């Protein structure tokens, strides 16, 4: 007896391969609704959304958007621009090299989600929808219309998988749900972008400058959000807006341009970052900036160990602690057991060298292990370091680290007579203490990036990648696996110690509780590893972006209190489900997780 498999039949449903929308609105009308809705969304932001200024952002003013209205204005403008680009308006073709329909859907979703979040937040905070002004109702209505119109845009439906008529009801439900999900994914998918035409070099450099300026503007706005509702709205617009630009193919073209001018892009990125302190009126957000750079630098060092060499290190934060303790003991602290006050360059060398020595001492007996066994050993080292530092208090052991009180009153750095602990006037701008340390940490980050790039492109870097991909095959080809892994461990540890040197002076105090395996406040080993995986292993920009997000988001979402780790875990689960290769993935890792993509013609030494 043979079992028949049949394709599901739905009366009135679009046939597979047909170009139709998710909802039954004519495509022409849907495009008009989406475009017109984007324009009206922009207009609605100039109206008052509530009658009282008790809701943060003051949404009571006509003709002047404020707070969350600014974010809705940006999302509405993107929706209108992509809508006009979908009509083929002259001069907007560059905005959507992969087609504007998918980008239009995400832009409309950004406007809809941000507007309705704002309306619900006003109603919840002030006690009901009665507190909304007509502008709020108009904004909610036009963004809904725009989003429904975008969903009516045509797309090519996937072929349905046949199902067995003898399947149970549950199996048929799972099959139908899977098919519906594939249809939704197809609705929001984009085409391959058209090839980028040749541009003069000066035009490409101007594109890079504009991109870096926009990145600086977005980062400055995000770090400067003053209340929880505004930061959540920023995350919504930034997430869906970036996805819209990616679906349009614009990000692909910009990435291709930056790849042609890598040195200019890297230098321009550091110049843009150096401009950040000059955009701040005080040290409030420069504080976040310097901590983000410390976290990002340590994550980039871990990326050598995990991303390039493929060694799972769960105790990496201990190397940061070793560098911080070593530097604090020779920097003139009254809590230090040594009566030393070395200059900055000597303290940096002491911190990096101490972490290097500990990296070699820990790596030499353990790096013959692989996989989970190595991870467990490194986890143990991280905990042993913290407990040992806690016990060296003169009671349980020698008085070296001052126990749980740590080493306190670490003096500020002085470099060539320049005291980083006091404010300085520079070009009409006042740079506070944390702005000074931000610029210093930026230089150290540049050194770490240089080390990462040069080592990744070297012979030892190729050996790291070979070990990561298949250690057995690499050993068979003559690579000394133990030596290569020990070098990766030592280099990563010394870079962490380098960052720890600055951290000790920024925080004034070094205590054992700063170097946990996991906690709500980074840096800790779990957050460092998550930053590398979230950003993209084996890349430079990935850990930097991942570290910035993982430090900034918990700092801005403190109202979640005990639910921070829950939200963090859910976000990681979703990311691993939908983008396991990370936010900034190299081409090789992307192909490992998405086998349906076409293989690249050329792979670099690190697979980028």
Question: How is this fold's topology laid out?
Answer:
Elements: E1 19-20, H1 27-44, H2 68-86, H3 101-126, H4 134-151, E2 155-156, H5 169-187, H6 201-223, H7 228-247, H8 250-260, H9 262-274, H10 284-308, H11 317-329, H12 344-366, H13 371-391, E3 414-415, E4 418-419, E5 424-426, E6 429-431, H14 433-456, H15 459-469, H16 471-476, H17 481-507, H18 525-535, H19 541-556, H20 564-578, H21 587-593
Antiparallel strand pairs: 1-2, 3-4, 5-6
How does this structure look, described?
The chain is built from 21 helices and 6 strands. The radius of gyration is 27 Å and the shape is globular. Strands 1-2 form a two-stranded antiparallel ribbon. 60% of the residues lie in helices and 2% in strands. It has 608 residues and is mainly α.
Which features would summarize this protein structure in a list?
single chain, 608 residues, mainly alpha, two-stranded antiparallel ribbon, two-stranded antiparallel sheet, 6 strands, disordered N terminus
Structural class: mainly alpha
Order of helices and strands: EHHHHEHHHHHHHHHEEEEHHHHHHHH
| Low-confidence sequence ranges | 1-13, 598-608
**Helix content estimate:** 55-70%
The major sheet is characterized as: 2 strands, antiparallel
**Overall geometric form:** globular
- Beta-strand share of residues: under 5%
Cα(first) to Cα(last) distance is: 52 Å
Identify the quaternary structure here.
single chain
- Tally of DSSP β-strands: 6
Report the mean per-residue pLDDT as an integer. 82
For the largest sheet, list the strands in their spatial order: 1-2
Q: Write down the Rg.
A: 27 Å
